[in-house]
């Protein structure tokens, strides 16, 4: 079952493709997206990564949470449902 992760603290220049490539080091990524402002198209500095397995998701959290990514410290955790 796929596991969705929230990734905060992304550099504003990060693309969805770069995000996917970084998280593929921990396991198979089924989807990666950087959230952008709908009016300006500029990144909001966070995104979501969907990992194929629970093990891959946990590996990604351990690999990236609190770690430097292009000069910024990432916050990676399991995504929570919108309320």
TrEMBL record:
InterPro entries: Nucleotide-bd_a/b_plait_sf, RBD_domain_sf, RRM2_NsCP33-like, RRM_dom, SLIRP/GR-RBP-like
Record-linked PROSITE patterns: RRM
Short name of any one Pfam family annotated for the protein: RRM_1
Signal peptide: none
MF annotations from Gene Ontology: RNA binding
Domain RRM: 3-81
Listed Gene3D superfamilies: 3.30.70.330
Keywords for this protein: RNA-binding
Protein name: RNA-binding protein
Organism: Candidatus Jorgensenbacteria bacterium GWA1_54_12
């Amino acid at each position: 079952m796929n596991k969705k992760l929230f990734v905060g603290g992304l550099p504003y220049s990060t693309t969805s493709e770069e995000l996917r490539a970084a998280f593929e080091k921990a396991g198979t990524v089924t989807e990666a997206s950087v959230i952008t402002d709908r009016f300006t198209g500029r990144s909001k500095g966070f995104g979501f990564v969907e990992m194929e397995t629970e093990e891959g998701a946990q590996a990604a959290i351990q690999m990236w949470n609190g770690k430097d990514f292009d000069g910024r410290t990432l916050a990676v955790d399991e995504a929570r449902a919108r309320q």
